Amino acid sequence: MDASQLRIILLLVGAAIVGLIYFFGRPRRKTPRSLNRANETEPGVRDVRKALERVEPTLGFSELEAEAITEDLRPVHVDSDAARVDPDGVPTPVTLPASGLKVDLPASHDRIVSLYLQAKDGEMMTIKDIKAAADKAGLVFGELKIFHRLRDGQPDRRPIFSMANLTKPGIFNLDDAGADTRGVSFFMTLPGPLSALDAWETMLPVAQRMAEVLKGQLLDESFSALSRQCIG
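User: That's the sequence. What structure does it adopt?
Assistant: Structure tokens below.
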């Protein structure tokens, strides 16, 4: 064996010895299991354990807070019939004169103001023509199968006024549009969603416009021709 081969062998042996010293001589890291066995009072051990624990992602709300938020986001059902009745009173069943329509009015109502639109000279009006005129006047067909004038943006509140059929029982059967009737009845209850004057100034122009379209005659509560004194 010559000198160059001997030097190579010594270098390899030296490198192996250095590697063994580095591998067995370095300090071993503690795993989470070894930390569980370590003394809890050892400095830094508690903090390291907390850092190693898995933390579930959250949205910043506790479980109870999240449940409360979900409850707030559930849709709220509004009972339109309940919305039309004063919360402090029981609805009062009333049969309207002339039309014979039966309605439940708020217990707090003081009076009913009515106008009648009747066909002239003993003629008749058709349901089809009445519906067309009501649509043009902004009336909506709905509850009790009669027409209503509702407040803009508040369809679940009590109507400003309503329109019933003068032929008993006071409803409109739109499925039989060819049927005829002697006229219609406009009525509003006071107090209502508007002041008495505002409600009257809403109902009167609609009644007048429909009288023009249907070529009928407006009558007051006593079935007399509507006078200027009543209008004013």
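Strands lie at 92-95, 102-105, 111-119, 125-126, 140-141, 147-149, 161-165, 180-181, 183-190, 216-219.
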